[in-house]
Amino acid sequence: MTTFSANLGFLWNDRPLPEAIKLAYQAGYSAVECHWPYQFDASEVKAALEETGLQMLGLNTDRGNLANGENGLSALPGREAEARAAIDQSIDYAIKIEALNIHVMAGFSTGEEAKKTFINNLLYASDKAKPHNINILIEPLNHYDAPNYFLQTSEQAKDILQEIGRDNVKLMFDCYHLQIMEGDICRRLTQLLPIIGHIQIASVPDRSEPNTGELNYGYVLSELDKLGYSAPIGAEYKSKAGKVDSSWLDDYR
Ligand SMILES: O=C(O)[C@@H](O)C(=O)CO
Ligand SMILES: [Mg+2]
Questions:
Q1: Which helix (H) or strand (E) holds 171?
Q2: pTM of structure
Q3: Smallest CA separation from ligand 1 atom 3, residue
Q4: What CATH number is given for 4-252 in this structure?
């Protein structure tokens, strides 16, 4: 049976995170994940997780200077000190709320130096996260939403993960981004399963409720089920109506 994790970066993101966790529970989600929880008191987030029994699957490292349009720091040569401070911050927060994964955001860059910088920062994150049983994730983003983002395809991610060779550094397979960039979703999920740490979904191309759009998630999720994948699937979509609508969950349970 497929279970789902509510991505609170998009769902109920107008509410304080502890309240959003409770709303996700009431809507029938089995887990939660977020983007940047740092403005919320970790002890209040932990209390909401305990009250609902939901686990926080993941959070992201800080993006850097938002006024300058930054979207992560870890593949930016010369910005290692800030990238590592963001990694430290995310690990400290994840420990407090017992989150499972940290998505280390690469940022806008390209080339061999950027790759080397990203790998070194990921090794740093891997070492720091290991004693706490936290996994590090890297996520390719599509070139329409994040033009010039360093990590854009699962092929590129696979190559980086092979070079890193750490069992706690994995791929965040966001079907929305990868359908846009590469397609062939079910074959890729099957082949990459050993290096996948988390899977996310949304409709393509409009990133709304997963039961619409060009990708048939009924089929994708049943293939994952056949592969024995049983972790909650991240629902990372923006509700079409503006107000969160969770009725699509009934199509897949
Ligand atoms: O797909 C996304 O946009 C997110 O998973 C994320 O963490 C980066 O914005
Ligand atoms: Mg995603």
A1: strand 169-174
A2: 0.98
A3: 141
A4: 3.20.20.150
